[in-house]
Amino acid sequence: MSSTELPSAPAASVTPRVGAVRVAEGERLRSAGLPGITLTIRSRPPAREGLPPALYVHGLGGSSQNWSALMARLDGLVDSEALDLPGFGDSPPPDDGDYSVTGHARAVIRHLDASGRGPVHLFGNSLGGAVATRVAAVRPDLVRTLTLVSPALPEIRAQRTAWPTALLALPGVAGLFTRITREWSAEQRVRGVLALCYGDPGIVTPEGFRDAVEEMERRLALPYFWDAMARSARGVVNAYTLGGQHGLWRQAERVLAPTLLVYGGRDQLVGYRMAQRAARAFRDSRLLSLPEAGHVAMMEYPETVATAFRELLADLGELTSPMAVGAES
C-alpha cells in the first residue's frame, strides 16, 4: 500500500455536537463532515496556546471515551483530540461500508489533512494501534510520535481468549451471537467486556460501571452496531493475512516516528509475548511493560502511561515548558 491509496481530503465541515454520549468534565464534542464519512471528535481545550497536537484512536468496540482518563492527564502537555472511528461511538457508518484497517486509516488521514493538525502525537489502542501503525507508515509527515497500547498486530498463535472476537469476522456469526445473547442485560454484557479487557475489573468504580452500562444500552439500540463490529473484526483478520509491503509488521518496520509501546501482562486479546517482537520491529521504540494491566492500559493505568509519554517527549527535547516535566493529574 502506498500513500496514494490514502488520499488527502478537502476541508471538513465542523458542527458542535451535543447528545446522549457521555462527555467528561473539560471535554467537548463536535462533528466533522468529510467526503464519505462523518466523524465525532472529542477534545479538551488546550491549557495554553502553542501546545503540540495529539490524536487518539480507539479499538474494536470502543470509542473516544476510552481515552478520556489519559487525555486529562496530558493537559498542559499536548492539545488533545480523540475521534470515534466510523460506525463506533457517535460516528455514523461510512458511506462505502469499508471497515478495513485501511478504511479506518483513511478516515484518520482525512481528518488530519482536513484539520491541518499534523504532524501529531498519534495514539492507538488495539484495532486503533493497527490503524495508527498504518497511518505512520504511509504518511510519516502526519506523525511526530507514535504511542501504541496493545496494538492489534498479527500473531501466529492467538490466545484462546481472543478467538471469540476473531470469530465475529465470520459471515453470520454476529447474527447468531445476537440471537443467542438476546436476553442478556446491558449489565451482563458490560461485565463480560470488563472481564475480557481489564487486568483487574475491580478497579472500575460504581460510577464508571453505570456509565459503561448506559453507553452499552445506547450502542445496542443502534441498527448498525453489530454490522460495524463484525466488519471491523473481519478487517483486522484480513489485515493479519496480508503479506509483503501491505503486511502490518512490514509497515511497522517502515515507521520513522519515535514509538512508545505499551503491553499488559494480563491482556487476553493481544499476547504479552508480542511486546519484544514489536520492540524489534519499530526502529525507534521504547517498551513499557505493565504486568498487572489488561488490554486497555490507558484506562487502567493512565498516570503510568502519561508518565511514560512525558518521558518520551523529554528524551526527544519536545517538552514545551519545565512545568510539563513533573505535571501530575
Automatic annotation (TrEMBL):
The entry's keywords: Hydrolase
InterPro entries the UniProt entry points to: AB_hydrolase_1, AB_hydrolase_fold, AB_hydrolase_sf
Domain AB hydrolase-1: 55-300
Any Gene Ontology biological process: acylglycerol catabolic process
Recorded superkingdom: Bacteria
GO cellular component: a single term: membrane
Pfam family name, one: Abhydrolase_1
GO MF, any single term: monoacylglycerol lipase activity
Coiled-coil blocks: none
PANTHER family recorded: MONOACYLGLYCEROL LIPASE, MONOACYLGLYCEROL LIPASE ABHD6
Protein name, entry field: Alpha/beta hydrolase
Organism: Streptomyces populi
